[in-house]
Protein 1
Amino acid sequence: MDDDPKRENLPWTLDEYLVVADLYLRRGRSSNANDPEVRELARLTGRSTGSISWRVGNFQRTAEPGRGLKPVTGDAFIVFHAMVANEALRVGLVADARRRLMAGLPSEPVELPAAAVLVAPERMLTTDATVNLVARVEKRARAESRLVQRYIKWRDPLGTVLRTWLLPTEESTLRTDLYDTERSLLIEAKAEPGRESIRYAIGQLFDYRRYLTPRPRLALLLSVKPSLTLIELLTEHHIGLITPVSRGFKEELV
């Protein structure tokens, strides 16, 4: 029988997400609705044990694309990845969240150390700065922008799935092209399917992935299908291929 779910029909707070994320990170999907820790969290949050168990499944899908339920999004998604990467941060955040929940206090904004941040994808349109670029580079940038926007319209018409990572480094902040939050898929877009372009994209994907935990799958979004030799190069490095077709896109993911 569930504990008294006083908050069952209210939106979840960040603190509630944090304590359930902590349970998943410590024990994985092993806990169920009758588990003592699940029942304790139900009492702490005012939720049913079924709701707690369901949220554990959401975090499983976030950490392991293809398994569990629908992944978490928004602030919960960002903080979850920070908790995965930094155990000391996780312990501190969860202790503060428990303290506020026990006292009936509202959640507080979480200040994270410099780390990767998910933002909405922007239109990669050229600006006045491009007047200083050679025509070939400007043309390529515009072609990549059209390719990305076409893919966004096809894959994410409601704007809830595709995002962009901002990755702070010692030199600058890197910005990825696209990240599929449902499939933990990092996507780099290139307008030209030539060897130079694809080799450059492989390097970008590998560099970006070093800053993300858990490490995402990789895919290259191209305007046309490349040569067989280059497809083999992508396959060898476990990078999927996404190309336009008449009714959308063909995804060959690995």
Note: Confidence is low (pLDDT under 50) at residues 124-137.
Protein 2
Amino acid sequence: MLAEASFKDFKLLRDVRLPLGRLNVLVGPNAVGKSTVLEGMHDLLRLVSVKPRKKDSHKTGRPGALFTGKRALELLIAKPDARELELEAVLTDGRRFGLRGTPASPGGPEADSFRLWFGDHVQRVELDLPWRDRADDEGFAQAVAAGSWPFEVVIGALPEPEIEAWLIAAWVPEEEPERKRHAALRGELHFDPCTKPEQLTSKREADRKDARRILEVLTTTGRGALERWADVPLERLEAHGGACGLARFVREVRERLVPIVESG
């Protein structure tokens, strides 16, 4: 049960903290933020929902899927001077979870950025999306596992730059022109990008080992990368993705998501 909700620079809620009980009534004149409070509460609940309405973003996971389109961050942040928004909920036992969202800016990062956290007054573990540091992910997962949360926590994000590498790990040549391109890349790189995707990079597009460039070459003709991804056996992903985080992702899908889907 929620004991408290807080909102900072969320639409017209500049800095609001609401203690909550079993029954809560919002009273006030028009345009003071009653509906905005409900909207923010809804966002918090959707953030930890196991059944998102939209497919998660490759870069920013569930938050990226939640705050998009007509609900994009830049449309929700308090005007005119706020640069980010923050939502947080506190459970009756003192544990809390929350989100801080910062929209992409001209000349800055291409994607919105988010910070998620779980914890209590003693320890709070945070995760930044897009992923910057694998260690952040591991610490966040440990906190979630140790927290006995009253809901299933599913972040659903793929770390950069590995999304292209993961798609390459799932690629299998199906026609002769594809086999020739694959062989040419193996000769150019001196390794097979499909079996050793961890050796690819994403620092410079001009780099011959740039994952995006390799994926474009492989998928010049034939089925697209996402279509192939949907068909690839999980065993192949585990075998080829051990060093780039893909095998661990597949294991977590099997252990965490598949039981949820099967249970309805």
Note: Residues 156-161 have pLDDT under 50 and may be disordered.
